[in-house]
Amino acid sequence: TPSTLSPGDTFNVTANFTCAAQFGVYPQYIDYYIEVPVNNNGYEPPILLARRTLNASSPTPLVDEFTTQLPYAYYYNTSNYVVMLETTFPQGEAGGPPYSYSVVGGVEHNIAIV
Fold this sequence. Notes:
Elements: E1 4-5, E2 10-16, H1 18-22, E3 29-35, E4 47-52, E5 63-69, E6 81-91, E7 101-113
Parallel strand pairs: 1-7
Antiparallel strand pairs: 2-5, 3-4, 3-6, 6-7
């Protein structure tokens, strides 16, 4: 929050992994980006906001919360932007070594950059 930002604005990010944990998904890395998800003109690379890990000793070990700043970068007025959360988590197949590879999944939240 908030969902309308200008370069230099600070905003809060909260990600709750309680539901993911119920399915055995425990993030190894959590990457947050500003992205143009569709109709990218080729000049809008993802901008990394943060790479984080969950804090197991936290009072809320399945919640990641932080404050960051929208970087001063060139943003196109005609583009739609999202904050993208990409989670990397270890995975393994039955009968194979545990956690022999990693899988990446993500969710996004629309933002307006003005």
